[in-house]
């Protein structure tokens, strides 16, 4: 069985969000880039599956649609333990554009992991679109995954609970919290080995852009926090009723 | 032309997010001079379908096919595409919940439609079609334009609210034409949490952080929540420590919520935590550290010991509700 893990390259979660002067684009000056947190968990789960005794996983490939700058992120994924990386050399325009690029390289994989959303533009779209383009099953809100022969057993979140489902490969698993406990951190040996692992660069296919960002705004600053003393718990609750009118 | 709204059900019952999507879709339909058509997949009885008449829906297309109970994303997207074509839908609205998020991307590919998820309000312009969406996990808003003739939107929870508007609802059953081969998902087991207010539906959420010191102190949080009819939540380390179940973890890597009222008790307010709760209308913080970042996001706050403040909250809430 061959696994593909999609890797989004996103600003570190502590990044202070700012935009350029005319507010048409994210200002990336000084930003640290990381593997999208859910993709990091997906890769961790893929590694666990591969290392399990009697595992049928032959290889783990990671893929990203992005320019050369994202190679550091892909190298990190190789250092964590992926066997091979593919970068489609293009600016990620909208989710459909990205999914269409990934569809060109995703044939032949049995299990494809995507994250529930990228923490930058919160699209929550690429995984589902890719499955549709490939004409294969997708399962979303995945918080657990086991491989049993060529069938996959998935735990997913549903409104107000969880569910175990079985599905045959190929499948796109769109993962969220719970899929792995803690993301793996590359070890020194992994970092050394990553340098000699293959990172293939492929050209994009022509694709229309369906959606674009016109501009961005930061949310309006909150009014000052109204403070009460440690003895005024009751007064605060009353203010929620009388003033804020939320009780 | 019409606006098509997918209203999903759990065991035959619609939820608040579905009614909100209906309200929102009906408002767009009015703005654009179109019909508001809801679509329901799976067994839902007539009385439940009729509830959509309270939220501005003109027609319901209902498929009573029980196979949809498996929540197979591929099958649901196929069925919705059939409905969209049948009612000549130009705009399709889904809730940005687990199911909506799973189906909308597939549907958009089928209909060659542009997709905007996590939408926070009515279109600011119909031509070009422009809507706002949450980006950077609530830390900013993006103004987006869709260039395709057909558009798919998922509506961020509690961003529009319920808008009551009574209509003469026409319910029609529709045949999705799906065969057995279209359903490829085998549901083995379902665990439903009962008797608890769902975080995704809660109007009020009471959350505790590491400042609560240990799981034994959660009885106060549960009591306040039960008096207020609120859901309970926690910060990530609290669920990592196993003090609370993972389903309660809110924030950038947990659940993203936007209740009307959010209590952050003993929570520092790390940027990743705020990302998941900053959409709340009113935030109350109790923290003994006056410099805790939570106070920058809060509307009301107490600098003090949560163990001393929480009993006062409970007492005051009992008086209000009693
Ligand atoms: C990639 C990434 C993703 C993350 N995602 C999330 C996420 O989704 N959600 C999330 O919550 N976190 C997330 N985090 C973790 C986040 O950075 C913080 O570590 C976490 O939110 C802190 O939780 P806390 O406020 O409960 O604990 P602490 O930071 O330990 O804060 C405890 C607070 O309680 C106060 N306190 C202590 N005793 C009392 C008392 N007696 N009375 C009143 N106040 C008291 C303290 O002053 C302090 O402010 C993420 C981190 C990373 C790196
Ligand atoms: N540029 C990209 N390259 C590779 N994978 C991506 C890219 N963008 C998004 N993804 C994948 O799709 C998931 C959802 O992203 P999105 O739909 O952009 O929110 C991410 O968690 C990744 O797994």
Q: What report would you give on this structure?
A:
- The complex is a heterodimer of chains A (247) and B (322).
- Chain A has 247 residues and is an alpha/beta fold.
- Chain A has a single domain, classed as Rossmann fold, CATH 3.40.50.620.
- In chain A, 25% of the residues lie in helices and 31% in strands.
- Chain A is built from six helices and 13 strands.
- A nine-stranded mixed β-sheet of chain A has the order 9-8-7-10-6-1-4-5-11, with helices on both faces. A two-stranded antiparallel ribbon of chain A has the order 2-3.
- In chain A, β7 (137-148) and β8 (151-158) form a beta hairpin.
- The longest helix of chain A is centred in the first third of the chain and has 15 residues, at 37-51.
- The mean pLDDT of chain A is 96.
- With 322 residues, chain B is of the alpha/beta class.
- Chain B folds into two domains: 2-182, Rossmann fold (3-Layer(aba) Sandwich), CATH 3.40.50; 204-321, Rossmann fold.
- Chain B has helices at residues 16-32, 46-50, 73-86, 98-110, 218-228, 236-240, 271-277, 294-297, 306-321; strands at residues 2-6, 9-10, 13-14, 35-41, 59-63, 89-95, 114-119, 125-126, 129-135, 140-146, 151-155, 170-173, 186-192, 204-208, 231-234, 261-265, 282-287, 300-303.
- In chain B, strands 7-11-6-1-4-5-12 form a seven-stranded parallel β-sheet, with helices on both faces.
- Chain B is globular, with a radius of gyration of 21 Å.
- Chain B starts with a strand and ends with a helix.
- The model of chain B has no long low-confidence stretch (mean pLDDT 96).
- Chains A and B meet through α3, α4, β7, β8 and β9 of A and α3, α4, β7, β9 and β10 of B.
- Flavin-adenine dinucleotide (FAD) is lined by residues 209-211, 235-238, 251-254, 266-268, 270, 272-273, 276, 286-289, 292, 305-307 of chain B.
